[in-house]
Amino acid sequence: AQTVTQSQPEMSVQEAETVTLSCTYDTSENNYYLFWYKQPPSRQMILVIRQEAYKQQNATENRFSVNFQKAAKSFSLKISDSQLGDTAMYFCAFMKQNTNAGKSTFGDGTTLTVKP
Amino acid sequence: GAGVSQSPRYKVAKRGQDVALRCDPISGHVSLFWYQQALGQGPEFLTYFQNEAQLDKSGLPSDRFFAERPEGSVSTLKIQRTQQEDSAVYLCASSSRVRGRGLSGANVLTFGAGSRLTVL
After folding, report:
1. Which of A38, B13, B50, B54 is packed most tightly, with the most Cβ within 10 A?
2. Shortest Cα distance from B86 to chain A (angstroms)?
3. Burial A31-45 (b: 16+ CB within 10 A, else e)
4. Which residues of B touch A107 (CB under 8 A)?
């Protein structure tokens, strides 16, 4: 079974600054996907970024980037130039690579507050 | 539709009542998932459909929980004889089987807004 751990229940950052959210996971699988999801107060979960484990290059999506360390089973999210709209709960998630994949294991989330 | 639609958004039930939660996935999405999210926690997997076939129901917490997707599109999650511990947000997600890059394609989940169930 897979586990995902987010050790920071709450974080805050000043607008325009950079913040890094931590995530570690445990698995015996070699091929898998990792995700960061954002859940604003309205509660609709939105995908922020995706990383395929076989790729060494870290994924980036505009202001969002990850630091994927496969050997250490670490997958942190960096948000650059933080904006007030980034305030949300952020979930790290793991998914096995499988033709019927989609079943994900989520961490318990980090609540991020961006302060003006 | 353009997104995953869930109804009702809010449901209050008395303990022992049966409830039904509906999910309308993105048109053409083959895969559909139900997750349960307790307050302050991450979503936990309940069940998975590929078209009308329920391929994984390992996360359903008890036999009071039942899900169906008879025509391979709309899905219903039914909870019989609700208990207080069933109070949670129930999230539905769908995904396509088309390979894609970045934030689209197979294995990328699109979530609905959820149905918040409160059992008194």
Report:
1. A38
2. 18
3. ebbbbbbbbeeebbb
4. 42
In tens, the pLDDT along B54-83 reads: 999 999 999 999 999 999 999 999 999 999
> What average pLDDT is seen over chain A?
92
Q: Which of B111, B106, B26 is nearest to A52 (CA)?
A: B106
Partner A contacted by B75 (CB < 8 A): no
The rounded distance, in Å, linking the Cα atoms of B91 and A22 is: 24
Residue B44 near residue A106 (C-beta atoms within 8 A): yes
Residue A21 has a CB neighbour count (10 Å cut-off) of 22
Q: Which residues contact B110 (CB under 8 A, 6 or more apart)?
A: A47, B3, B4, B26, B29, B93, B94, B95
pLDDT higher than threshold 70 for residue B98: no
Distance (Å, whole) CA B34 – CA A25: 22
Distance of residue A85 Cα from the nearest chain B Cα, in angstroms: 18
Asked if the C-beta of A62 comes within 8 angstroms of chain B's C-beta atoms, the answer is no
Which DSSP string corresponds to B1-63? --S-EEE-SEEEE-TT--EEEEEE--TT--EEEEEEE-TTS--EEEEEEETTEEEE-TT--ST
Q: Who's near B119: CB < 8 A, 6+ residues apart?
A: B12, B13, B14, B15, B82, B83, B84, B85, B86, B87
- Considering CB atoms only, which of B33, B91, B113 is closest to A102? B33
